[in-house]
Structure formats: C-alpha cells, structure tokens
Amino acid sequence: MKLIVGLGNPGKKYEHTRHNMGFDVVDLFSELSQIDIDKESFKGLVGRGKVFDEDVFLLKPQTFMNLSGESVREIVSYFKIPLEDIIVVYDDMALAPGKIRLRPGGSSGGHKGIQNIIDNLGSQEIKRIRVGIGEPTYDTIDYVLSKPTKEERVLIDEAIVNSANAIKDILKDNFDKAMTKYN
Q1: Which range marks the domain in which residue 165 is found?
Q2: Measured between alpha carbons, how far is 57 from 5 in angstroms, rounded to an integer?
Q3: From 59, 64, 139, 157, which residue has the greatest number of CB atoms within 10 Å?
Q4: What is the rounded CA–CA span in Å between residue 42 and residue 68?
Q5: Predicted local distance difference test score (pLDDT) of residue 181
Q6: CA-based Rg of the chain, rounded to a whole angstrom?
C-alpha cells in the first residue's frame, strides 16, 4: 500500500499557485491513473485505487500547508502505512522552475509543510519529489502564493508532467531507479 501526498493550500484562491505544485502533480497523477480524489477524510481529499497491482492512496491535505502533517499522520496511522511507502510532492524555491528532484529523505530545507509532516511522523526518512518554483524576487509569502509567470508556467507544467511520470516509475520499478532517471 502506497501513499502519495501532494502539498498545497485548499480553495480556489490558491489553485495553480507556486505553493500548490503538490496538488497539481497529484491531480495529474489522478487523471493518468484514473483514481478519483473524491472523498473527504483524514483532514483531506482522498482517492484510492490500484496502479501496477499496488494499492495506492492519493491525499491532498486540506489543513493548509503548515499543518499538512496532521492529515498525513491520520491516514498513515489508520491504515498502518509504513514510512517507506509514503511519497510527498511539494514546491521548492531552491530549484529553478521546471526542475524536479527526488530525495529519499533528509531535512525540510525550511519548507514548513514537509517539516510539519516530519514532526508528525517523527522521521525525516520520507521520500519526496520537489518541484522547482525558483527563488523569490519579492516577499517570499506573496511569491509562493502567487501564480507563476507565463514563461515559468511552461517550465512548471513540464515539471508537473515529469513528477507525475516519476510517481508512475516509482510504483512500477522503485524509488532509486526513478531517482537516477529524473535527478
């Protein structure tokens, strides 16, 4: 059983903003895998299906970014999902728009959503896909909560597709193989 978590903020106001890359990736993966994210549970929106004969949960926490770990902890605890079977997808300012980076664990790098997940699960050993949004040229909060420029959007859309494909490759093969391919 695998859990794919996309981080973002709920509501129309935040749709397709830089901070909602995780939601955008999970939404695309949902389409590609034909798993509807249509249930409200575990403080989030949840979908469940099979991909390559693997049970897969898709989760979009609705707690707002900085409390994402509450939603993740609830579903992990309820279904007894091992930490090694969790993949979290989120935005990263340290990567240029269009770049993605897969990591098997480590610190949050200052990202409050992944930090809250680390705190709630008690481990940094959580697989992740980071989607580049670039360095802010103005106030960080305003930057992440705004929509990318048209030029950035083209690059970010490519990164969203690559991230969704990376999830498929992880489920088909394994994380290390996908990491070699996409990093």
Answers
A1: 2-182
A2: 8
A3: 59
A4: 11
A5: 97
A6: 15
**How many separate domains does the chain show?**
1
Q: Give me the catalytic one of 2, 18, 19, 60.
A: 19
β pairing state of 54-61 and 39-41 = unpaired
The predicted model scores a pTM of: 0.97
The Cα 99–Cα 111 span in angstroms is 17
Write out the two tokens for 9. 């903020």
CATH of the domain at 7: 3.40.50.1470
Widest Cα–Cα separation across the chain = 46
Average pLDDT across each block of 10 residues of the chain; the chain has 183 residues. List them in order: 98 96 98 97 98 97 97 98 98 97 96 98 98 94 96 97 98 97 96
Angle at 35 between CA 129 and CA 102, to 5 degrees: 10
